[in-house]
Amino acid sequence: MLDEWGGWPTTYLLRHTSRLDEHTRRRYHQYLAARLPDLQFPSHADEKKNQVAADAIYASAIKWLKEKVRKTAPLVDKENAQYGFRRNMRGMRTMGLWGALIAIVASLVAIAAQIDVWPQAVADMKLFIAELRKAGNPAIWGALVIDILAVLAWTLVVNDEWVKGGAEQYAEALFATCERS
């Protein structure tokens, strides 16, 4: 995912070409440069010439900033935990999806096991619907609904963009600490 994103959000948001407005980015650069005088932050032209070198400077500044706010920024910790949760959920997506699909099959089998007159029910749709209404207790039907919602969540919500959103929220919370002092 990092290749698709163009690197870590904490790095690419400091680039001159990022979605951050130039005034905010300049404040972050100035804040970090004032506290890390040994680092020479690249100009836009320098960054264009050698993005790898520019990213190395940004990565060093970010490492310093993370250490600086480690114990004093609960929002940064919260956003980092949220990003970690999203990343881990994305890593477990296949397993979660298979688990939800197996649960759907199990719920359907539980419902089907309670239909008494299968051959007649299949031939007569009204009888089949009546048998379905009788079959299974509400807990089985509820489980089936939850299983279907789980499949939808694993396929529609847990994706790379969801993880990227969490990563960017973390980066923004980390950079917001530059505004505190």
Outline:
The chain is mainly α.
Order of helices and strands: HHHHHHHHHHH
Amino- and carboxy-terminal Cα gap: 33 Å
Oligomer state of the chains in this structure:
single chain
Helix content: over 70%
Task: Outline the biggest β-sheet.
Answer: none
Unreliable spans are none
Proportion of beta-strand residues: under 5%
Determine the number of helices (DSSP H or I, runs of at least 4 residues): 11
Mean pLDDT over the residues: 90
| Content-based structural category | mainly alpha
What is the number of independent domains? 2
Note the overall shape: elongated
Radius of gyration (Å): 26 Å
**How many beta-strand elements?**
0
Salient structural properties:
transmembrane helix, 181 residues, 11 helices, mainly alpha, transmembrane, elongated
Helix-strand layout with pairing:
Elements: H1 2-5, H2 9-12, H3 22-35, H4 44-49, H5 51-69, H6 74-91, H7 93-112, H8 118-123, H9 125-134, H10 138-157, H11 160-176
Describe what you observe in this structure:
Keywords: Membrane, Transmembrane, Transmembrane helix. The chain has 181 residues and is an all-alpha fold. It folds into two domains: 69 residues, no CATH class; 111 residues, no CATH class. Helix content is 76%, strand content 0%. It has eleven helices and no strands. It is elongated, with a radius of gyration of 26 Å. The two termini are 33 Å apart. 18% of the residues are buried.
